[in-house]
Design a protein that fits this description.
There is one protein chain. This protein has 88 residues and is mostly helical. It has a domain at 1-23 and 58-83. The chain contains 3 helices and no strands. Helix 1 packs antiparallel against helix 3. It is elongated and about 60 Å long.
Amino acid sequence: MEPLQIVAIVLASLLVIDSGVLIWAVMKQKGSTEGLGSIMGGSNTDSFLGRNKTKSAEGKLELTTKVSVGIIVVLAIALAVIVSIPLA
């Protein structure tokens, strides 16, 4: 087996695992109930909970979602580049 094939298998495996993490993080998040009023700035985030959202469990899930999406993008691009390299 070629070294590039091994790298492609590892990257594909990491992509599947990270996809599972992303699905879990999105499913654990609560839905946004702000509706269309939040588009025009109708949301009030000056409360205690709004200011400390990054320290809450919901904030950690949002961060996990953003990091997982970034990792998926990087892994997908790397996998596409490696697969496009012809074998000798």
